[in-house]
Amino acid sequence: MFALVDCNNFYASCERVFQPRLEKRPVVVLSNNDGCIIARSNEAKKLGIGMGEPFFKVRPLIERHGVVVRSSNYELYGDMSQRVMQTLMRLTSDVEIYSIDEAFCDLTGFLHLDLEAYAWEIKDTVKRWTGLPVGVGIGKTKTLAKLANNTAKKSDGVTVLQTEAMTKAILAMTPVRDVWGIGRQYDKFLEKYGIRTAYEFAQARDSWIRKHMHVTGLRTAQELRGIPCIPLEEQPDPKKNIAMSRMFGRPVTELRELEEAIAMYATRAAEKLRGEGLHANNMLVFFYTSPFKEGFTGASLAISLPRATSYTPDLVRYATAAVRQEYRRGNAYIKAGLILSELTSPAREQLTLFDPVNDEKRIAIMQALDTVNRKWGRNTLFYAASGTQNRWSMRRERKSPSYTTRISDLLKVV
DNA sequence: TCTGGGGTCCTAGGACCC
DNA sequence: TCTGGGGTCCTAGGACCC
Fold this sequence. Notes:
This protein has 414 residues and is an alpha+beta fold. The protein is 41% helix and 21% strand. The structure holds a DNA duplex (18 and 18 nucleotides).
């Protein structure tokens, strides 16, 4: 048996923990650059504010109903997420952190318990220790636990798929697009063949599913039938890509600003890379103008690095060179970014024959840099290439304080 | 005027090898 | 009458997830 624990309206709920006056009020959280709606409290959902909708489109509705709007505050959400995960690890043994607001638990060692009571204990404890509401779904496979969690959200917060009959009943009630692994395209496809519910999908012929939806689709069907195909993964696999991209706060036309931005993204990506203990062999640099406007254009350049590296100055140099090569005067760029790929572990890399590089010195410099920035905050030390003004940086006009991660933002009780 | 960011897996098809 | 068989590696693109 697996449990899926999922925080309700996670970002919106995080905002509420430290501002209880937002309780019962509609709250939404915006994406980076204050562009789209990415989280909504139940009250906001009821008003008809859709997930992913551009802020400017729903703005009249939001103002009419006095909806509370927040820019996203990942410092806060990341820290609250850790608290939830730590709580779960105290309550059960095997936990897979699936996303910032969700975790799977393997309940193999807990089958002697009353699972429903146990689910309630998880829910109540997380609420008490972190202030966040969660839903708990339990089923024979991860896909069924997900499904149960879906149901839990609509009822009182806990659903356990104990018996075959109950599982079947819930499958028959669930639209197939709500199944984990079935997205918009497959939903459309399945509808053509008259498959509308999770139950109907689970009944489809294996060879037919395999042919049209490949092995992943077949796995999903098997899981719905109660046959586990997707194991719990406690240790995350090493990352295969590290990306860093942002929309600009306003269009960028100057080469120098574009270079600054990409230098900053390269710096941040290099930090992530070192955090994973990996080196990159490949870099993709891209930037483009607005796809919503006439004359949409952009550039992307893949660079095969001559030597695997996580050394910030190297990455900054290649990234800015790519920008200089592909930049075209007269374009108003709205977004830029880079992706590091072919990540390898330094221990098993091939050195080039004539390698003039003093690795020890470079490693020591990066360690010092990371240590200072960890202790004193991001960008305490930074490369001049990323500029000092950053007029292009993203908008975050309605951000709440970093209550749990900055001493200056601590909540004051007066 | 204003439309997010970061990931994974799978397959088909081409290039190439013996 | 009618062009072998069996592989690997790589990439682009499509699907999905949160």
